[in-house]
């Protein structure tokens, strides 16, 4: 049973406070922390921050920490950690708000993940196996990773409007091979950029970025095995009914203002020119009509991140309206492990792809790696193949592959619908 829960404030990969929890049972201590990202709107769970501008610029999370130490711990002590849905429900009942704004999703999620780890510990099975049991799923799949190799949008200081260009090693045979491909191409890309644009990087548009990636891939022997995914995050550059591809440029010419129809044409041309297999948030999060048009074009996967915000009601609407065909799951947008399992099921029942995603603010917690294997999501997006908090996830997938041995099924070419 759960004997003690102790929370503290730590810093995430951006240097911004987040919540860490140590949850104790008779089997030992189980630690988890909450990731954090750019809030994308009113449909996601609420992150509780102290708001005192004099302390961490308002971002400290001592209220969320205290909610765990004083309220959540009282409600959960004595519970069986294998009963994930009851633990999550107890926190939801204690919170009483739709968006978890009373206790804070950063408090609730950190405890939910720690309890999930404790549940696995109680059963003495690996975390991914416990998650698969919770989801009632017999299959385990190592996901195909999408490695971010060029960042733009709000995540970078360059002029690139779209948020990320990712490489997806669908042709790898195993995950370790996929990771090697990702790492090698990442370093080739660094060399290509230095050769063409100098050591201080470059300012290119989406075509320019894709050309650099294409060249980096061509310097390896993996050309046939690597596909490309785009994370457009188009809400960031939508102005009214137009999309401003120069939104970060100081000298705007106005020539790069595109209508929804022109954006569709642009995506079509990019997909024809480059091996693009997936586009995330190609339009503004409320531009349901244009996303729908693009989803009906060709075989490219269309992923809803900001469009869906991992919210079951938004997902349901998108399923009904046939708006996109893949869910990007960010666990802290929904808030508990149980609800994350449910929305993944909702997406899979609709025959959608599922991408388990990191946040821009991550910690060394590798939970999403196990989640992705346990839910057989088929796809994971955890950033570049470098930096500790990103590699925490990819390295955990290496360990899981090793542990599963011959049973390790790498999603690879089955990335959209693994067995
Ligand atoms: P975030 O985005 O800033 O919302 O966490 C991360 C991502 O989608 O890769």
From TrEMBL:
GO biological process: glycolytic process
GO cellular component term of the entry, any: phosphopyruvate hydratase complex
Pfam families the record matches: Enolase_C, Enolase_N
Sequence positions that bind substrate: 155, 164, 280, 305, 357-360, 381
Annotated EC: 4.2.1.11
Cofactor(s) this protein requires: Mg(2+)
Co-factor binding comment: Mg(2+) is required for catalysis and for stabilizing the dimer.
Active-site feature positions: 207, 330
GO molecular function: magnesium ion binding; phosphopyruvate hydratase activity
UniProt xrefs under PANTHER family: CYTOSOLIC ENOLASE 3, ENOLASE
Protein name, as recorded: phosphopyruvate hydratase
Taxonomic classification: Eukaryota, Viridiplantae, Streptophyta, Embryophyta, Tracheophyta
């Amino acid at each position: 049973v759960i004997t003690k829960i102790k929370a503290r404030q730590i810093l995430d990969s951006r240097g911004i406070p987040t919540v860490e929890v140590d949850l104790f049972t008779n089997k030992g201590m189980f630690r988890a922390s909450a990731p954090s990202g750019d809030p994308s709107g009113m449909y996601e769970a609420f992150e509780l921050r102290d708001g005192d501008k004099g302390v961490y610029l308002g971002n400290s999370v001592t209220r969320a920490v205290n909610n765990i130490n004083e309220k959540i711990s009282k409600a959960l002590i004595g519970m069986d950690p294998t009963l994930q849905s009851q633990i999550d429900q107890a926190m939801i009942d204690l919170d009483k708000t739709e968006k978890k704004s009373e206790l804070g999703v950063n408090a609730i999620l950190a405890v939910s993940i720690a309890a999930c780890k404790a549940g696995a510990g109680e059963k003495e099975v690996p975390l991914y196996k416990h998650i698969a049991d919770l989801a009632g799923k017999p299959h385990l799949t190592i996901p195909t990773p999408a490695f971010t190799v060029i960042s733009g949008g709000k995540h970078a200081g360059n002029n690139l409007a779209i948020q990320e260009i990712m490489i997806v090693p669908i042709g790898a045979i195993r995950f370790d091979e996929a990771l090697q491909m990702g790492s090698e191409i990442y370093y080739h890309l660094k060399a290509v950029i230095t050769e063409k644009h100098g050591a201080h990087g470059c300012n290119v548009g989406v075509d320019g970025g894709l050309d650099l990636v294409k060249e980096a891939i061509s310097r390896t022997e993996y050309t046939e095995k690597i596909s490309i995914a785009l994370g457009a995050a188009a809400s960031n550059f939508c102005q009214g009914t137009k999309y401003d591809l120069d939104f970060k440029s100081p000298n705007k010419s106005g020539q790069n203002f595109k209508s929804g129809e022109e954006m569709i044409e642009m995506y079509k041309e990019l997909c024809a020119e480059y091996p693009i297999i997936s586009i995330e948030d190609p339009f503004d999060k409320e531009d349901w009509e244009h996303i729908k048009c693009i989803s009906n074009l060709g075989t490219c996967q269309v992923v809803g991140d900001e469009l869906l915000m991992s919210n079951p009601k938004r997902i349901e609407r998108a399923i009904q309206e046939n708006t996109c065909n893949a869910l990007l799951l960010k666990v802290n947008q929904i808030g508990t492990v149980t609800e994350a399992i449910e929305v993944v099921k909702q997406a899979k029942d609709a025959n959608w792809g599922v991408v388990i995603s990191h946040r821009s603010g991550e910690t060394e917690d590798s939970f999403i790696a196990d989640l992705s294997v346990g839910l057989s999501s088929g796809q994971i997006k955890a950033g570049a193949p470098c930096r500790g908090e990103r590699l925490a996830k990819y390295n955990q997938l290496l360990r899981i592959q090793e542990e599963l041995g011959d049973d390790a099924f790498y999603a690879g070419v089955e990335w959209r619908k693994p067995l």
